[in-house]
Amino acid sequence: MAAPLHHPTIDEDVALRPTHLLVDLDALADNLAAIQQRVGVGVGVMPVLKANAYGHGLVPVARLMQRLGVPYLGLAYLEEGIRLRRAGIDTPILILGGILGSQIPLFIQHDLTITASSVDKLLAVEECARTLGRRARVHLKIDTGMERIGVHWYSAQDLLDSSLGLQHVDVEGIFTHLANSDSSDLGHARQQLERFNDVLDFYPRHSLPTPMRHAANSAGVLQLPESWLDMVRPGIMLYGVLPGSTISRTVTVRPALRWTSRVVYFKVVQPDSPVSYGSTWRPSKMTRLVTVPVGYGDGYMRAMSGRAQVGLRGQRYPVVGRICMDQIMVDIGWDSAWNDDEVVLLGRFGDQSLTVEDLAIWAGTIPYEILTNINTRVPRVYSSTRFPDLVAPSPRRS
Ligand SMILES: *Cc1c(COP(=O)(O)O)cnc(C)c1O
After folding, report:
1. How many angstroms separate the alpha carbon of residue 136 from the centre of ligand 1?
2. Which residue among 94, 272, 365, 385 has its CA within the 20 to 30 Å range from the CA of 51?
3. How far apart are alpha carbons 234 and 70 in whole angstroms?
4. Residue 326, domain extent
């Protein structure tokens, strides 16, 4: 009889895979505190946790944010919100994206706050809540110059009027999104805020209380205090990465990620022997290469081929030839390396570091895309001195 198959648990998966993404929860907690300190006690902070918490892992980051007492969490999609509710997160959650009518019952059943971006959608929410015999919560979305979702500022009156007569819906908030708050020219961002404020005048004009107002993303937090209003919605800066290279660094944050793998193969390559698909690179003299089990299938982007560097034994070395789906080759010249040596793809090594910005430049993209592309195939490992109970077991290495 065949021996029973061995089914690895998640922890064993983490231990078996030589590639890990280490997430420093203390850095995230410090970044949140720095943001809160910048905007002051009167302004709420809604951390944005969409796209797997910008790659950092949705549920663990949400647990930390809930522990830190944030008033709200921001997500892009309904299914991200359902995942957090199933994980036991009961902090209010705003789904920032557009909705389909068929999704409304799920929003209400999971107590997720809906972005109401048109009169039709708002009335559909009212109707659905009435049918279910439950209350729905919405934030109205005003488009002041992004042209993504929301009613245009010049025709917002209808949405605000309709929002007043609802029996089953709580209109808790009203928001807009800035298209150019990361620019050194803040003219368009200021114009968007003026348009938003014109819409908001509706409430005092009708002697009505104004719902919770919010507009600022990370760049707004950093460069535009007039955008803070009642609540801010920082995403990327919570993760210690700035939204642009020319942005004012008015808040000090630090990155939370360290992405590492290990040498799985070592060899000597003869001069002129082409390396990897397409034979795009060949050494001019005899050299030593190591192979590392990470690739574009993990989010180590193929566009970085010919440009990327990694850290090994305290030194930087170039990734050579094309980046494959699951493997990369690194030229270590005539230096030494051994199987199982740690290879740093992102984060500190020795007294140097490889940043998300470095990877973004090599890939010809922005830091956001690097973070959100680190695939779920890469196991996340959490560390924290302050929140030990939020840290999953570390990888066991034998
Ligand atoms: C993604 C997003 C944010 C956060 O943006 P960052 O630039 O990462 O701070 C805020 N608000 C909305 C509506 C978003 O979609």
Report:
1. 23
2. 385
3. 12
4. 257-354
